[in-house]
Design brief:
Blueprint lengths: L46 E5 L2 E5 L9 E3 L2 E3 L12 H21 L39 E4 L4 E4 L7 E3 L2 E4 L10 H10 L4 E5 L2 H4 L14 H11 L2 E5 L30 H19 L9 E5 L12 H13 L5 E7 L2 H6 L6 E6 L3 H11 L6 E6 L16 H14 L2 E5 L4 E2 L7 E4 L2 E4 L3 E2 L13 H13 L32 H4 L5 E3 L16 E8 L6 E5 L2 E2 L1 E6 L2 E7 L9 E4 L6 E8 L15 E2 L3 E3 L3 E2 L3 E3 L1
Parallel strand pairs: 8-9, 8-15, 9-10, 10-11, 11-12, 12-13, 13-14, 14-15
Antiparallel strand pairs: 1-2, 3-4, 5-6, 6-7, 16-19, 17-18, 20-31, 21-27, 21-31, 22-26, 22-29, 23-28, 24-25, 24-27, 29-30
Length: 640
């Protein structure tokens, strides 16, 4: 990888694409050509490096100029032979050796590699991204398109137009989640990403947001994925799309729809027939929509991710990853495919799939991280698909999670210096709209995430620029100066609202019809949220039954509550039973039952399904029996 020389860099401008009504976008302008009149894109005194549509010229290090020895002479700074010390015989010998080497490489190499500079004729050879290697490589080379984004042996490469040379590039990216922001703020966050010097935006696609019920699809409002892609193209950014089907992301169930759990035998994130049937149906809707937004089709998408951190999951079902990849290929996905896993050899091997570039997720120590990556993938560009700029928050934590800016920069700057591709996760914070936050099991305890997803990101949940943003922009500008780094951006506008005085209230139980969906559902035993007859995804379910006459101060036990139950007897609050969210969590309370019996109401709240690890099959509600006293189990329930 090329080591940048910040002191000699110069800046070129950046163009932007424009949206079209057909679902694809107009190809953005190509990288600016070199000012040199020479027909060769490789100049005597500078090397051209493309960062997306960002061009950087770099002079060679003075210590390295004119010192590379060759047979019969020296290699000058222009890359031409100096014949001062060469005889004619030596020159002929050198020419003969060069010809023999060229012929040998031509006949022995199965696919000619792309060099670290642009070709004189970009159509002279095919560029085969890793996703197309093997049986598909010969029939589907991306270089048949007027423009394309692909892979060489050691770098990403781009040809913005049919008349442009193929150029090395890298991805300087930041994660901005469209589903965590109001659509009216998308352009603002994307402009701030570009103003930081980045050329790419990365986003997940949460399946459960787009298909809340089987066969019912939502692509409106915060779910308007295509609108977000068009905004990215308008700003002039590449896109890395991460469609899962599992995404983690501290999002409810890692983006998997809760209705999958209606099947008691289902095995999520596996080649289980029922699970893959649902994935196939979802991808058959999603992938054709986004295929036309790939870079070679005129859109901004340059890469798509296969699943997410599957090597960290530990189940070892390589057939599953191959099935997900094949679904992508079968629906016209021809851009670069990547996988993302932790920086351990076992994780990278377990989460990899043939035809996809392996990338790493990380917090620090890039030297170690990329050495682990090189053990399993010696070729291909080095990339971290998640470099964590902050961290998320969970209920019960003492403070908001922060990651100091200096700590972030201590890892980011070495990566920029090495020429690695980086995605800042997150670049801009957001919110869990619609009770969509996920949860973890941490140290044996259930740990739900808070509504805010500020993440201590360079751009806050409110859209404000932080000191971390300033340092990142300065660092990127040092190594890869661009006109975009000078874009004018500002903090979001704040409004002051007058105090609102609450003068009235209403009883929850007297307005049940107004706050519940549809008629009540009966069951002998309590039903979980995901049951086909109930179909509750997020929020609350009210469980109601009739208690007969029991002794006063009787123990009421709720076995396996997921996640928080508020108990009422005849409409009067009696206590709370919850999953092991806190050290004070308990599974029983004491209630007083009148001699003539009472109505028992249990309002159960879903605090968020587990989004990472072995607990993904996280059904909600009263999952076990409800018991009063030592032996009596309560039956015959109504659910609303």
């Amino acid at each position: 990888r090329v080591e940048p020389q910040p002191s000699t860099a110069t800046t070129a401008t950046i163009g932007t694409g424009s949206s079209s009504g057909s679902g694809t976008t107009t190809p953005p302008p190509s990288p600016l050509p070199s000012p040199s009149p020479s027909p060769s894109p490789y100049h005597d005194d500078a090397k051209v490096i493309s960062v997306g549509r960002i061009i950087r010229r770099r002079s060679p290090s003075p210590s390295k100029q004119g010192k590379k020895k060759r047979v019969g002479g020296t290699l000058g700074s222009a890359g031409s032979w100096s014949a001062a010390s060469c005889s004619k015989q030596q020159a002929l010998q050198s020419l003969l050796v060069a010809l023999v080497l060229c012929v040998t490489v031509f006949f022995l190499a199965p696919t000619s590699p792309i060099h670290t500079h642009a070709h004189h004729d970009p159509r002279a050879r095919d560029v085969h991204p890793l996703v197309m290697q093997g049986s598909l490589a010969a029939s589907r080379p991306l270089s048949r398109y007027p423009r394309f984004f692909g892979l060489s042996n050691s770098s990403f490469v781009v040809r913005p137009t049919a008349d442009s040379p193929v150029q090395d590039t890298l991805l300087l990216s930041g994660s901005v989640h469209y589903f965590r922001l109001h659509p009216g703020t998308w352009a603002d966050r994307l402009r701030k990403l570009k103003a930081a010097g980045c050329n790419t935006v990365a986003t997940y696609v949460p399946w459960n947001l787009h298909e809340p019920r089987p066969g019912e699809y939502n692509f409106e409002g915060i779910a308007n994925l295509l609108g977000f892609l068009e905004e990215a193209a308008e700003v002039g950014l590449f896109v890395i799309l991460r469609p899962g089907p599992y995404i983690c992301a501290e999002w409810d169930a890692g983006g998997l729809p809760s209705w999958l759990l209606r099947d008691p035998s289902i095995v999520l994130r596996s080649s289980h027939v029922g699970y893959m049937r649902a994935v196939t149906s979802w991808f058959s809707r999603l992938l054709p929509m986004v295929a036309s937004y790939q870079y070679h089709n005129g859109g901004p998408i340059v890469a798509m991710q296969v699943e997410n951190e599957y090597g960290n999951y530990g189940t070892g079902d390589p057939q599953y990853l191959a099935q997900v990849r094949d679904l992508m290929l079968g629906h016209g996905i021809e851009c670069v495919l990547i996988t993302a896993d932790g920086a351990h050899v076992d994780s990278l091997l377990g989460g990899g799939v043939a035809g996809a570039l392996k990338t790493v997720t990380m917090r620090k120590d890039p030297a170690h991280v990329f050495s682990e990556l090189a053990k399993v993938q010696p070729d291909g560009p080095a990339m971290t698909s998640e470099f964590w700029s902050g961290w998320f928050d969970s209920w019960g934590a003492a403070n908001h999670s922060v990651r100091p800016a200096k700590t972030v920069m201590s890892s980011l700057e070495p990566m920029l210096n090495s020429g690695a591709s980086v995605n800042l996760y997150m670049f801009a914070g957001g919110s869990h709209f619609g009770l969509r936050s996920g949860a973890l099991v941490h140290e044996g305890k259930f740990s739900p995430h808070v509504t805010s997803y500020d993440y201590d990101a360079p751009v806050t949940e409110a859209g404000d620029l932080t000191h971390k943003f300033d340092l990142i922009r300065r660092a990127i500008g040092t190594y890869y100066p661009t006109a975009a780094a000078g874009l004018a951006v500002a903090n979001s506008t704040k409004r002051a609202f007058a105090p609102v005085m609450m003068s009235q209230s209403a009883s929850f139980f007297s307005h049940l019809d107004a706050v519940t969906d549809g008629p009540s559902v009966a069951g002998v035993a309590p039903l979980n949220f995901e049951h086909v007859d109930l179909g509750a995804d997020a929020g609350f379910v009210l469980y109601s039954t009739r208690l007969d006459s029991y002794r006063r101060h009787e123990r009421l036990t709720l076995h396996s509550v997921h996640d928080r139950a508020t108990v009422f007897v005849d409409g009067v609050f009696a206590g709370i039973v919850e999953r092991d969210v806190t050290a004070k969590a308990r599974d029983a309370i004491f209630v007083d039952v009148p001699s003539d019996g009472a109505v028992l109401d249990i309002l159960v709240e879903n605090l968020g399904r587990i989004n990472y690890g072995a607990g993904l099959h996280d059904r909600k509600g009263l999952l076990g029996p409800v018991q009063i006293g030592r032996h009596a189990l309560i039956h015959n329930w109504e659910h609303r």
